[in-house]
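Ticket #254: bound-state structure for adenosine-5'-diphosphate.
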Amino acid sequence: MKLTADQVSIALAGQSIVQGVTLDVESGEIVGLIGPNGSGKSTLLRAIYRMLRPTAGRIWLDDRDLWQLTARESAKRTGVVLQEMPASFELTVREVVQMGRTPHKGMLSLDSEKDVAIVAQALDRVKMLSFANQPYHTLSGGEKQRVAIARALAQQPKLLVLDEPTNHLDIYYQIELLTLVQSLGITSIVAIHDLNLAAQFCQRLYVMKAGRVVASGSTAEILTPELLAEVFQVRATCGFHPITNQLYVLYGSL
Ligand code: ADP
Ligand code: MG
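RESOLUTION: The complex was predicted; output attached.
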């Protein structure tokens, strides 16, 4: 599924937070959203997963206007992974992932065999099936984020919205999580602070500053010393690994 935001503006408490943002994510692409704290990334993503209604502009999922869909139709299409998933203490891992089936079920209806199978598949996909009966709150940060992905997968989404999904994870789990997202092949938009991970896992980047998109392009076009100085006020050196040709960013310059 293709995501398009067309001139999206969002005001909160009378203040303009996002202004005239236009972006697109092609089917199967992973696109990164970078920018300083407070630049409006989370607010824009909230509009994309339909938590916030834009004050102007349109968001399209393929050729459907997001706000013409019902909440349920939109929840079937879009899975969300945040820094941390709030979940009640008593829930097991399986129960957390079952919540992903909600938009597919009738009111108060019990889990069908199909639902049970989809939940098991989602847990298996993130290698958490053996944790299914464990209380969610007892998991490590990396395990919790894998469960968050499993819950999103149980929705069978066509779009994944990830807002700093790797924030509380050590580097092993950061790479593991993004490798997992990459392996899914689902259209994904991810707000991410680590520019080296953005370089490694995203095909294109949009850069936000003060509520606007100030640059967009391939990772190599965006991750330049000039742009990082302008947007993040840091001195950086950008280069390509001599053997793997992987783009990297080092802070501090010659
Ligand atoms: P980012 O995710 O890039 O760090 P956010 O989208 O969280 O940025 O925030 C952008 C700006 O919007 C911040 O200045 C923040 O204080 C403001 N903001 C976020 N939510 C609200 C709200 N509910 N009411 C008023 N201002 C808000
Ligand atoms: Mg944010």
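RESOLUTION NOTES: The chain has one domain: 3-253.
TICKET STATUS: resolved
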